[in-house]
Each structure stands twice: as C-alpha cells, then as structure tokens.
Amino acid sequence: MIYPVILPYLQSDYGLSLTVAGSLVSVLWLFGSIGQLPGGILADRYNERTLLGLSALGVAVALGIVVTSSSAIILFAATALWGLAHSLYPIARITFLSKRYEERLGSALGVTMATGDIGQTVLPPIATVIAAGVAWQAGLGFVAPLLLVAGIVIFIAVPPLRTSTGETSETGETDETDDPISLRDTLGVFRTLRRPEMAMMSLILFLYIFIWQSFTAFYPTYLTSVKEIDPAIASLLFGFFFAVGVIVKPVGGAAYDRIGMRGSLVGVLLPPVAGFLLLPLVDQLWALVVITALISTMLGSGAITQSYLADSFSDAMQGTGLGVIRTTTATLGAGGPLVFGIVADYGYFNEGYIVLAVIMATVILLTLRMPQTS
C-alpha cells in the first residue's frame, strides 16, 4: 500500500502517464495472483512456516531491486518479482490458521488481517514523509530491512503444524507429505468448483478485487489531483482507510462465525456503495474522512470470503482449491488499476467512482442469492 502513495514520484521520474502507472500496480497484483496457485499447491505439500518466511525474504529482495531500478523496464520486472514473492504468503497464512483454529477460522483470520491493516495505516504516511524529505526510493526501501527481520522471526517463532496428511512436523523443516496428491484428488478440487455456490462466490470475489485494487491504486492520486488535498494529508486519509479495517476485519470474521457468510458480507459491503456515490460530490476534509470510513468497511469482506472458501475444501486440498480461485479471480481483478487509470486519463475520475458503486451494488445482489450459511 506504499506503492499508491509514491506513484506521483514514479510518474515524474520515469515519465509515466496515469494509465502506465496504473498498469504498474496491475503488474504487482497480477504476478501476486498468478503465483497463488503454485503457492496453494505448495501449502498442501510443505510446512507453511517455510513458505511464509521465504515470502517475506523474497519481497525484501525484490524491493531492493525496485528502488535501484535504472529504467521503467527494470522497474516493471522488479515489480513482477515482488508480486511473485508475495504470492507465497496469502494461502499459506490461511491454511496455517485453518489448522490451528478450526472452529474459529473467521475470527482468527479477521484478527491477523487487522494487524496487517495496522501496518497499512502507519507505513504509507511514513513513506510519504520520507519520500518528500529524502527520495521515493527511501520511502519504499525502508521496508526491506523490516521484512528481512520479519522473515527470520517467522522461521524462529511460528510453530510447525501438521501437514495435509495429518502428521506433525517436529523439526519445523520443510516437510513433504508421505503420499503425493493424486490426480483424482486434484480433479476433486474442480468438482467442488463446479458447484453453483462456488461459481457465484468466485464471481463475487473477482468483482470485489476489481473494486478494491482500482480504489487503492488511485485514491491518494485522486485526493491530490482532483480534491487538491496536500499529499501528506492524502496519505493520512489513505492510512485512515486501513485504520478502520483494524476494527472492521475482526468484526467481520466474528460475524461470519456467528451468522454465516451472507448476512455478514452484505453488512460490510453496503456502506461502500454510499461512499463511492458521495465521493465525487464533496470537497471538505471532514466529509472526505466520513466517506473514507464508509468505503473502508469493505475491508471486512476478506475475513468472510476467505473463511467461506477455506471451509469449502477438504484439509488435504485446501491450499490447492484456494489457489485456483484466488489466482483466477485476482488475475482478472488485477486489470482494475489499468482500466481505472485509462478512465482517469480521459478525465472521468469522478465517474469512475460511480461505476465502482454500481459494481459494489451488483456484488451485494449476488451475495443475497447465495445460500445462507451458519
């Protein structure tokens, strides 16, 4: 989430249009999506601790290449590497939590996702100050050593859990299961995906990712260029968007555990519809704070949808199933920043948010057609 707040600096240094800058964010999410299928397969086969640690270390290395890139081509290539390294983390996190907190997955996932939002609240404003006072390379690069430390801490602190065969790793080393996953097991994933409710949830997830990536990629730029907000204030508003997520995500996860997917998901997606519709109409800072809070309730959907999907697959094929869905939906959704960048380049920034409101309303209607779970 530091990338969106430094996009203006990248546009200036590399001579990028809004469309090309948007495609840079799309590349990050595209490769972060493509890698989730193999990442999910690996999560079914190997100890999650190894994948989580390698992901953190890999992103740190990729960031080092990004901030030292001498051309736009190298910048794009390094961003792709960053996305691939990141892709090892999401599914391994989910399968790890699903084994450790089998009866409270929604709550556990909501809490861990909320702690991520603490970082997304604090780090973008820090990055903005550093980028303005030193250079954008420092504003992004200061995270790399933190990730190196985090990767080492993961290897030390995260406990080894049972593998997909039900065995427990005693050493914490990379543990391959005794029996390879059969072709029949793999085809079982696709049989699960053919169920109507899974197809519907995949469509919901794709539309949500499209909205989320479009909004986060350009919100700081929109605030500075259209609303004429100071960049430092814009970064604080952007951080506030994730600060609300610190509260919403645990609430959304707990709601999933208590009332099921449909009611909890509709509850967190209704406010953003109003927020997107009102955003082009206001310019006052206090009103933008309120609207940012309304839009940010959508962050609670992650704990809900990911828990629902994780509960839909067997333990042995959970990572693979999540990988198939997340890779497909997130790869398609990664086009959001590119499309939104084109819309903004043609002068239709405000209209773009109206379209996001319509798409979000469509997601709510699709959710209401899902079978009730509890």
TrEMBL record:
Its main location: membrane. SUPFAM superfamilies: MFS general substrate transporter. The keyword Transport does not apply. Keywords: Cell membrane, Membrane, Transmembrane, Transmembrane helix. It comes from the Archaea. Residues 1-374 form the Major facilitator superfamily (MFS) profile domain. It is a multi-pass membrane protein. This is MFS transporter. The lineage of its organism: Archaea, Methanobacteriati, Methanobacteriota, Stenosarchaea group, Halobacteria.
